[in-house]
Specification:
The chain is of the alpha+beta class.
Length: about 625
């Protein structure tokens, strides 16, 4: 804080902020931490939370999603602050998009984890639903409403189940009109204020896309972002002049996503923070374009930033340290956000910088567990085989005394994803039971620039697996654990990483859990949903190079597996088909290895239902206790 003549005022504001934060957090601070009450994992998995906040103008009400009922459902906060449940889908909702007035929403929901979201028109006050689509083989999404609520734009792969085209749905007569017809993955991204223009994002891989400007009156479109190599344009917004576009882009020397301004006439791109070294995410504006909002991802942690577009003034940001997953700035400048940290379940907060005042709007249920016993991680870096620095979050049990303890490595999916310091119920259970956890962001992770993200592409696939081995070596070298006490778990690409580790390094781990992971890249690419195949080939390698794909596939090295393995999968998985699980289970059974499995007929790419989650985590924790404790 820099102050000269205004020093007294600065210290006064700081005092008010600190007082406000102390007041907000007092509700769960309680007395001094007591001896931990450690119930079973089932109780931990019932800890609640709230996310995906939105605001209804017409009702002056906040909406959010929560698993408090056992599946993700939508809720509206009443005037009394009580959550009114709006949706009652057996399998929960996939998302919702409010219209401008906030009296109606398009809700997307699928069955059994299929991800084939159908669209429903919902009344935001009562929750009354009207089903708009009934095509379970088709996926619908990316909703953008017209301001008057008369209809909305969306994407769908209805034509051939592969290519996503962009359409308009007129609610007056339910007529559907195609507005953007191009092969591949296309997403409506922004509608101009006068509704004459639309920005469409066209993905060629998970690391490369293009931006097209569509004239909705003539149907003609213009390519705004011709480029070479992998470049990613994201969060585009058309400003009221119909010419200026704000967005994030990583076409810079660091290869990180930065705030930028694009002139659609000249196609000139100008960065707002050219010297920034951190990734920008969640870039957007209030509906009246008065306020700009963005989040900065600094080694996984995120902070919210605000700017007044009329004055150019940087505004006070909410004093929260952890992971703000979503943030929306309202027309009056207040910020509605979802915040979590490793020791705090996600809740919805309102930040009013005018006061300043930070208010928690929802209150997660901690299932009778004292939150003050939860552990925050250390951000560390370890060197891999080639000297590359790998960032990771190191969690140590609360009473760690320097002696080796059982450890579990947690490998995120993606691979173009990033482990973030958010609340992990199963982590806290393990920590209170004396386990340590290491969550690395191995090469290929996002958040550190395009060069780092591309280090595992195609022929470099197994280099990311070497990073995991280096993480184990770091733990052993620093006496955090020892051989025979180390387990690993991961989902999706993380599940592949688990299988790769126990085939490439058979003696490294004493227990392994693969959730919805890839065992055979050839069958995976052949059987994954058609609309995903070319995006995945850009990352892993083409089916035409089957020899390479086979060389990195754990299924062909299953005879190496010595590590006891638990396999978890959903029969309706559209991304990594369940046959991947069945292949590795059968291969291990043939060789006489130790393998257990949980295959759920009503789940997809990940386990969504509370009762199934309870089964998974009870089984997994018993599995780790059996193979890692007391070694």
């Amino acid at each position: 804080m820099t102050c000269t003549r205004t020093m007294f005022r600065c210290f006064t504001i700081a005092a008010v902020l600190l007082a406000g934060v102390a007041t907000v957090f007092a509700d769960d601070a309680g007395s001094q931490p007591q001896e931990p009450y450690i119930p079973d994992i089932g109780t931990f998995m019932k800890i609640g939370g709230a996310s995906s906040p939105d605001y209804s103008r017409s009702l002056d009400a906040v909406l959010f999603s929560s698993f408090m009922s056992g599946a993700s459902q939508l809720y509206r906060l009443t005037e009394e602050g009580w959550p009114y449940q709006l949706t009652l889908f057996d399998d929960g909702v996939d998302g919702a998009s409010l219209n401008y007035a906030g009296d109606q929403a398009i809700v997307r929901a699928s069955v059994g984890g299929s991800e084939q979201s159908q669209m429903y028109l919902m009344d935001v006050f009562s929750g009354r639903m009207e089903k708009l689509t009934d095509k379970p083989e088709v996926q619908f999404g990316s909703i953008i409403w017209k301001k008057d609520g008369s209809g909305f734009f969306f994407r769908s792969n209805e034509e051939n189940l592969r290519d996503f085209k962009v359409y308009f749905h007129d609610l007056s007569d339910h007529a559907i009109t195609k507005v953007f017809d191009m092969e591949g993955a296309n997403y409506p991204a922004s509608l101009s204020p006068d509704e004459s223009l639309m920005l469409v994002l066209h993905l060629t891989s998970n690391a490369d896309d293009d931006l097209y400007l569509v004239n909705l009156e003539s149907g003609k479109y213009e390519h705004l972002t011709p480029h070479e190599g992998d470049v990613f344009y994201d969060y585009p917004t058309i400003m009221p002049d119909n010419q200026t576009i704000y967005l994030t882009c990583n076409k810079n020397k660091l290869g990180i996503d930065k705030r930028a301004r694009l002139d659609s006439k000249t196609k000139k791109l100008e960065y707002l923070d050219p010297e920034s070294i951190w990734t920008v995410e969640g870039f957007g504006f209030s509906d009246n374009f008065r306020y700009m909002i963005w989040r900065i991802n600094k080694d996984g942690y995120s902070t919210v930033h605000l700017q007044d577009m009329q004055t150019g003034q940087t505004l006070p940001a909410p004093p929260l340290m952890g992971y703000t997953s979503e943030a929306k700035v309202l027309d009056d400048g207040r910020v509605l956000l979802s915040f979590t940290s490793p020791s705090r379940a996600p809740d919805i907060w309102m930040w009013d910088w005018h006061a300043p005042e930070l208010t928690k709007l929802t209150h997660a249920n901690y299932a009778g567990i004292d939150r003050t016993n939860f552990v925050e991680p250390q951000l560390i870096h370890f060197k891999s085989f080639d000297g590359l620095e790998i960032p990771a979050f190191l969690y140590l049990p609360p009473n760690y005394n320097g002696e080796p303890v059982p450890f579990v490595l947690d490998i995120h999916g993606g691979p173009e994803s990033q482990f973030r310091p958010y609340f992990q119920r199963n982590f806290q259970y393990l920590l209170l039971h004396g386990f340590g956890v290491l969550a690395p962001n191995i090469r290929g992770s996002s958040g550190y620039g395009i060069e780092y993200q591309n280090l595992d592409n195609y022929k470099n696939r197994l280099n990311s697996i070497k990073d995991i081995k280096a993480g184990v070596e770091y733990l052993i070298k620093n006496n955090y654990t020892r051989k025979g006490m180390i387990g690993i778990k991961g989902g999706s690409y993380g599940g592949y990483a688990v299988l790769a580790c126990i085939t490439e390094y058979p003696d490294l781990f004493a227990a392994a859990v693969d959730e919805v992971g890839i065992a055979n890249f050839v069958t995976f690419l052949k059987n994954t949903s058609e609309y995903r195949r070319y995006l995945r080939e850009a990352e892993y390698g083409p089916l035409s190079d089957s020899a390479f794909l086979e060389s990195i596939s754990p299924i062909h090295k299953a005879s190496n597996i010595k590590t006891p393995l638990l396999v978890v999968h959903g029969e309706n998985d559209p991304r990594v088909p369940v046959d991947e699980a069945r292949q590795i289970i059968k291969a291990i059974q043939i060789t006489g290895g130790v393998v257990d499995s949980l295959i759920f007929p009503d789940e997809g790419h990940g386990i969504g239902k509370r009762e199934n989650n309870l089964t998974v985590y009870r089984t997994m924790m018993e599995f780790f206790h059996t193979h890692l404790d007391n070694k």
